[in-house]
Amino acid sequence: MPATHFRTCTLCEAMCGIRIETDGDAVVSIKGDDQDSFSKGFICPKAIALQDLQQDPDRLRQPVRRTASGWEKISWEAAYDEVAKRLNRISDQHGSKALGVYLGNPNVHNHGNILFSLPLLRALKTRKRFSATSLDQLPHMLANLKMFGHQAMFPVSDIDRTDLFICIGGNPAASNGSLMTAPGMPHRLKAITARGGRVVTIDPRRTETSALASEHIFIKPGTDVLFLLAMLNVIFEEGLDNSGHLKKHIEDLDLVKLACHSYTPEVVEGPTGVHAHDIRKLAAEFANTPEAVLYSRIGTSVQAYGALCTWLVYCLNIVTGHFDRRGGMMFTLPAVDMVAFGAMAGQSGHFDKYKSVVRALPEFGGELPSSTMAEEIMDAGDKRIRAMVMIAGNPVLSSPNGQQLDKALASLDFMVSIDMYVTETSRHADIILPPTGPLERSHIDVVFPMVAVRNIVKYAGPVFEPAEGSQHDWEIFLNLARRLESRDVASSVMARARFELMHRLTPDGMVDLFLQLGPYGRLPPGSKLWGNAAGKLLDLLGKRTPLRKLLETGPLLRRNNNAEKNLSLNRLRNEPHGLDLGPLKPCLPERLYTKGKKIRLAPRLYLQDLPRVADLLKSYESHAREPLDNSFLLIGRRHVRSNNSWMHNSYRLVKGKNRCTAMIHPEDAERLGVEDGQSVTVTSAVGRVDIPAEVTDTIMPGVISIPHGWGHARSGISQKTAQAHAGVSVNDLTDEMQVDPLCGTAVLNAVPVTLMPTDKRRVKAA
Ligand SMILES: Nc1nc2c(c(=O)[nH]1)N[C@H]1C(S)=C(S)[C@@H](COP(=O)(O)OP(=O)(O)OC[C@H]3O[C@@H](n4cnc5c(=O)[nH]c(N)nc54)[C@H](O)[C@@H]3O)O[C@H]1N2
Ligand SMILES: Nc1nc2c(c(=O)[nH]1)N[C@H]1C(S)=C(S)[C@@H](COP(=O)(O)OP(=O)(O)OC[C@H]3O[C@@H](n4cnc5c(=O)[nH]c(N)nc54)[C@H](O)[C@@H]3O)O[C@H]1N2
Ligand code: SF4
Ligand SMILES: [Mo]
């Protein structure tokens, strides 16, 4: 029977509303939902590929076990029993430190995974946790924690109301925006210039976003920290700083002044490649435009100075009065307020409470840097990881030195993957547990509304009933956790009671609690009903709190003065196109989680890292600036038809021109005798790949760009379309030893490599 369903695309952060026509168990079409309260019909080409994901014959629908003769289908019961038995045995023999977990990106697109992974993580009882965070937004979360007191208090660029959008190290026209959730980025960027505003991009590549911008400034990869210090320097030197309504709520402004004191535009001009005049002009324009914002992303955070860059970007917005203010950086007030409840559950975040074994790199939020995963498996002696639980991630392609991780995973005593494909990573698993797909479960975004440019909320039930005997991720988590806990008699009674409760509640039930308790919710904070419900929620989050205490803190939860005060899951069931809860509003200093409700402008850990910047500057001064003929800095790239490592099995997304290429400037190409399309060999400290060159003047001389997520030619994966469009993995070049030493984030941009035409290398070798 034909039917129409409305929901949200789960592939990237943009939260586009989609309209799915089905007939029986087949998807007939996927289109943009014109009536969606947020996206108004916009989608990108990836949304349609949800259909391919749903119908993909390569997708696993039942647990499999690796045997000498290939993958063997097994029952869920047998799979759970075996996984629990193997993990328990290893943990009994070697302690729970022998168990590791990796959590990949799709977890954040799935409310069941976000809300129900805790019991499994607890049952594993290990500190050897890794995730895509340390390949991504860790520097932002660290700055949130250190400056605002809560790791999830992300300031969001108010792109729809700004007159000057300066974008450094992000490409929202291709990525559709990150830590700035809004569907239809190209339209929003065009709207800025259409209303007389300006868009400026600062990037080693003239990107798809630059094509929509008013001005593009090339910058040498990895030197942003110098550029940002110089921007600050101009602002202070010329007396352009004015933090407006936040003036009284800022600590340590003088220390920031001191930090940038010697970094004049003239000093940084050489190393950054940005004219001093352009820096002065941009700094003044930024300070003098009332509604302006400086936005930064992957290019500035996932590099050697990522933590410093992200801190400086926040500082620049704050000291120019573009913070907590219309058109600048603002905070959301989401319907599912995980920030407030996280804080109530004692989970505002922590940093450097313990360290990795081999390299002593700091944890963040209970996770170790992913760059340490291979060595923690291979080189940590008695403390090594012997078994891994991989949840919705593909670190062999997504984390640095994938070849080494490949070897490390192959050496494990046991590995289980929770994934719907046999991937470059899950091929190492002894057992793969495949969850239901995105159309077979209910959906409500709980993470991205925290970083959205408007307050929005939307819920949808499943499009298709899950096939008989299939399991959601959250059911897999609970079923495994129950078995892992059951050998510990004392904790198992309590644990079993909690599992029963959670099973009955389901993630939807937990979301309903969040909604009713939250800032738009049905239950007024501080009322007895509210207190009881909040107690239940915090109990599930593992923090038993007396009612009295809850009733005290309840009213501190900010209520909105918005019309919507009756939110619950039932109410949302009647709003298939979602609810718009209004634009972002100023909320500081009340919402700060720091002591004394001050913004800590100059946390000591950043100041202590500044000598490294002085060294960077010196290294440029002492260098003969003429680079060796074939040495380059490697940067990353995203394309609107590619989604990290895992949507390349959709033919409609990979067909046409090969997108896994090394972009190189025509001058460099000519000097090295490289022609467009010709194979080049790129070599780094850890590896080598052969890849077609794409000669283009959109990239700076001395820089090459290769996208990540490719490299499907490794043996033993079962994704036929991806294998036929394999590409190579850029993370066979990135180096796990190169991290931002301040926080352990991987260095995936500005990686030193050499390049030469592949056939010349062969001739040389012969
Ligand atoms: N060089 C370089 N490397 C990068 C980056 C870069 O810019 N440059 N970017 C980094 C960034 S920002 C990120 S976020 C990471 C991403 O890296 P990862 O999170 O490690 O990998 P993904 O490619 O997102 O792979 C997701 C896996 O989850 C599976 N999956 C999809 N949906 C579900 C689901 O609902 N449940 C379960 N259980 N599994 C599911 C897919 O089949 C796939 O195998 O890559 C990082 N790596
Ligand atoms: N189509 C598509 N969309 C996606 C994804 C995807 O894989 N495909 N992944 C999603 C994920 S997980 C994330 S985290 C977001 C990321 O979202 P974005 O951060 O917007 O991601 P990128 O498109 O990689 O943009 C990074 C930009 O930084 C530039 N850059 C590289 N090195 C430097 C440097 O040293 N300095 C400066 N100033 N710039 C530099 C690159 O040229 C590039 O233009 O995208 C999300 N959206
Ligand atoms: S931009 Fe594309 S992938 Fe991202 S949510 Fe929208 S339709 Fe999905
Ligand atoms: Mo990401």
Automatic annotation (TrEMBL):
Residues 2-58 form the 4Fe-4S Mo/W bis-MGD-type domain. PANTHER family: ASSIMILATORY NITRATE REDUCTASE CATALYTIC SUBUNIT, TRIMETHYLAMINE-N-OXIDE REDUCTASE. Transmembrane segments: none annotated. It comes from the Bacteria. Pfam families: Molybdop_Fe4S4, Molybdopterin, Molydop_binding. The lineage of its organism: Bacteria, Pseudomonadati, Pseudomonadota, Gammaproteobacteria, Oceanospirillales. Keywords: Iron, Iron-sulfur, Metal-binding. It comes from Allohahella marinimesophila. Belongs to the prokaryotic molybdopterin-containing oxidoreductase family. The keyword Iron applies. This is Molybdopterin oxidoreductase family protein.
